[in-house]
Amino acid sequence: MRILITNDDGINAPGLEVMQAIAEEIAGGPDDVWTVAPAFEQSGVAHCISYTHPTMIAQLGPRRFAAEGSPADCVLAGVHDVLKDNPPDLILSGVNRGNNSAENALYSGTLGGALEGALQGIRAIALSQYYGPANAHADNPFEAAAAHGAETVRRILAADPKDQNGYRLFYNVNFPPVLATDVKGTRLAPQGLRRNTCFQVEPHLSPSGRRFVWIRGGDQRAPTEPGSDADINLDGYISVTPMRADLTAHDALIALKDAFA
Known about the structure:
Mean pLDDT: 97
Number of helices: 7
CATH superfamily: Survival protein SurE-like phosphatase/nucleotidase
Low-confidence stretches: none
């Protein structure tokens, strides 16, 4: 199996080393694992692509490339340039530093890379490591992902439907904010929504008097619907959420039918 890996934390991020190990375990060695990752951190860029300017790409080593672009750019470069003669069978994005559960999924460059893989018709999985008091200051905060990542990917690949019409499935995996031995198991879960919290800005003045704002995330322990991804992550479970690029609110199509008859 030929695997392309990317991330949004950048080519030198420790989570990418964890993903390399997961991919090598799935592929049976390093020879079929290729990396195309952002040269610089691209957190929060979602499914952005560099449509209006070129993306420089440089080879850093065997099967290892850095691109000055987003995770989606990296997937496009990997599929249509680096691996154009032998496209990948699987795209793995991550392992992200921090969770991409609930509304974070909509901002995530990690998810953006997996989404682009799915749009290219390739199986794609995004993996993220939730941070919390039990693991944030551990010797290896990615311990849960490192210990359970390969098996989780295998289970998804075994269950992934073979014949898919329309928008292809991709998968959002979040490892709980605990050490590996404290992981309770793996559950399918819908995307949640953290109540009464959202991204905000914090304004600051520079020494020259210019006004800037920093983007701030919301409370990552805010409650979500029972059984949703963030809810079970905080309870110690790995969440697996199947997703599609189709943003249509199908329930609203029915509810609004009479208004547009």
